[in-house]
Amino acid sequence: MATALVPGIYDRRVADVELSANTEVAYEMTCRLTLEARVAEAIRVHGRDAYPYECCGALIGQPGLAVEACALPNSTEEGPRRRFLVRPSDYRTAEARASEQGLALLGFYHSHPDQLARPSQYDLDHAWPVFSYIILSVAGGSPADMTSWRLSDDRTRFDEQPLEVAAGAPSLNA
Ligand SMILES: [Zn+2]
């Protein structure tokens, strides 16, 4: 699967490139996403620590199951990130990290400080097919709702993807 997604960088100029994934893999990814408890926890901690800025990271695992949240830098040449943007260098870092472990890049997460856990137009404009996009709302510095989204086939909207956290360690805001 990782191989099929090699062209995947966040560049609108190449956003019309056809990406493909094994049908079975793609189908499984469509259905639902489960986070290991420590992955959900890592995302919450990252969102809390980055507040009032957005945090951003990659989801690594096998289809349908994220086993690692790989934090991406939330500081750029322009200063701390105010909006979600995965740069080609981030993408390569995440993909390398995944393949090192024989795993796949499943998608990305980012936080919405003091905003709902729903994708913005900016998020939609920068999304790629197949990937899961997790959004964590961070309200007043406290991690709140977490949702997952996937781009619709016609790329005009996000569809919410069922998100589960596997039983495990208690979460920050339990
Ligand atoms: Zn966003």
Largest sheet: 8 strands, mixed
Look at the helices and sheets and give the structural class: alpha/beta
State the shape.
Answer: globular
The pLDDT mean sits at: 83
Spatial sequence of strands, sheet with the most strands: 9-8-7-6-2-3-1-10
Report helical residue fraction: 10-25%
Distance between the termini: 35 Å
Number of helical runs? 4
Q: Could you tell me the strand content as a percent range?
A: 25-35%
**What would you report as the Rg, rounded to the nearest angstrom?**
15 Å
The hetero compounds bound to this protein are: zinc ion
Q: From the coordinates shown, what is the CATH architecture?
A: 3-Layer(aba) Sandwich
Q: What would CATH call the class?
A: Alpha Beta
Order of helices and strands: HEHEEEEHEHEEEE
- Give a count of the beta strands, DSSP E runs of length 2 or more: 10
Residue runs with pLDDT of under 50 for 5 or more positions? 4-8
- When the domains are counted, the total is 1
Write down the CATH topology.
Cytidine Deaminase, domain 2
